[in-house]
Amino acid sequence: MRDLYQRLALPPHATPQELQSAIAACQHSALKQDAEAVLAIPERREVYDSTHTTVSDIGRLRARLGLTHAAHWQGNVANDFSLPPDNAISRHDELVDRVSHAVTLYNRWWRFRGTWLFVATFGIGTCAGLAAGFALCMRLWAA
User: Fold this and answer.
1) What is the pTM of this model?
2) CA-angle at 82, arms to 80 and 83, nearest 5°
3) Mean pLDDT across the stretch 9-30?
4) What digits encode the pLDDT tens for the residues 71-85?
5) 79 within 8 A of 1, measured Cβ to Cβ
6) DSSP of 70-129, one letter per residue?
7) 3-state DSSP helix/strand/coil percent for the chain, to nearest 5?
């Protein structure tokens, strides 16, 4: 399937007037004939637009997965909906990285919890003992 919009250098939401002028200016006879048969008739254009959206989504999915056509298919009609591979990190990989980081932090806390629990208990006990001793000394000194 050809991407008629791409071949005519039009956006998919082009008006009928823009479409007619692009078809009239087209130099390629087979492309011009296909565009007149498909895009010039509103019912056929509606069906083509639905199919175009689906095939474009598939092309974006293939790009996200890093799938492209082999070298001998480049520039061919079969390559109209292909996009260059998308090397950005996928949402799944991003979430896996975040969960791995959280697990690492949890494991680090779990490993040192005994030390931190001892330090916290000792610190709280020391502060409570000093406060009680200070209060007792103040009471004895005031009496």
Assistant:
1) 0.55
2) 125
3) 91
4) 655 566 656 777 766
5) no
6) -GGGTTSGGGTT------SPPHHHHHHHHHHHHHHHHHHHHHHHHHHHHHHHHHHHHHHH
7) 75, 0, 25
